[in-house]
Amino acid sequence: MAAEVAQPEQQSKEGFIRGLGLLDSTMIVAGSMIGSGIFIVSADIARQVGSPGWLLVVWLITGFLTIVGALSYGELAAMMPKAGGQYVYLREAYSPLWGFLYGWTLFLVIQTATIAAVAVAFARYTGLFFPSISETNYLIEPIRVASSSYAFSLSTAQLLGILMIALLTWMNTRGLKLGKLVQNTFTFAKTGSLIALIVLGLIVGLVWHPEIARANFGDLWTVRGNLQDVGHGLTAAVVFGLFVGICVAQTNSLFSSDAWNNITFTAGEVRDPKRNIRLALLLGTGGVITLYLLANLAYLTTLRFEDIQKVAASAR
């Protein structure tokens, strides 16, 4: 009887079970943010700003913008703790029309494309370990559409990506407990891997190659190396070019720090959402940005700045 009486209190007004605690909510924030970007974009940023100090400044600016945005969203989520996130905020702020349009755009393009991109990346990196999984290993050869350049095909990489989307979709239909177990497990795994990379990088750099750290941190602000054109021939070699480079670099660092707002889509399933969503956004974004800064310190401790600039992924 007690369980039956307590049951309505565990449901949101929309009928969702409020089964996500603070830890689960924080894992959604952190898990949504941490991806391949932190291993890829630092090299691009290094070419755009031209010095170790400005590389770290770019990440500090990104951290500030991300945390401020997350705290603003936390206030919105506290005011409207309903499932739907941005859809709800746009509907209430501007009109149901804009909420409707955003909802369909999210469903048809934004979130769909993100899921597809992650599936493609997963399949490509899996192919590094299993060569039979490849975008050129066709199960169905490309079939051209009339005289256009479009073609339908099915490769082993495409099949793996499709199967992974289907598997995770099926897991999410099994209920909240399994969904949050999968989310927490993978978030702990990739957070632990990133921490291990940071620790290993700092140890290797400081113990075996201290001269690299001295070269990078002993000359933080001198612009040098292979500089990227950030527009109309500008590079970080001149003051205005450096300013433009810092601004342009935000597209890379903010890309790596994106998706923290995903927790607001599940607001209807969070226990005590007015408290837990705010804290999850603060703890999740703050923790990930701290790890990103430490990761860049590890890069600068392990690799010469000029070497970071030369590679497509500085610590893949």
Task: Please specify the SSE layout and strand pairing.
Blueprint: H1 2-6, H2 22-33, H3 37-49, H4 52-79, H5 86-93, H6 96-129, E1 138-144, E2 151-155, H7 156-173, H8 176-208, H9 210-217, H10 239-256, H11 273-302, H12 305-310
Antiparallel strand pairs: 1-2
Helix pairs in contact: 2-8, 2-11, 3-4, 3-10, 4-10, 4-11, 5-6, 6-7, 8-9, 8-11
Describe the structure.
The chain is mostly helical. The chain has one domain (9-310). The protein has helices spanning 2-6, 22-33, 37-49, 52-79, 86-93, 96-129, 156-173, 176-208, 210-217, 239-256, 273-302, 305-310, and strands at residues 138-144, 151-155. It has a two-stranded antiparallel ribbon with strand order 1-2. A hairpin with a 6-residue loop joins strand 1 and strand 2. Helix 2 crosses helix 8, helix 4 (52-79) crosses helix 10 (239-256) and helix 4 (52-79) runs antiparallel to helix 11. 31% of the residues are buried. The model is unreliable at 1-9 (pLDDT under 50).
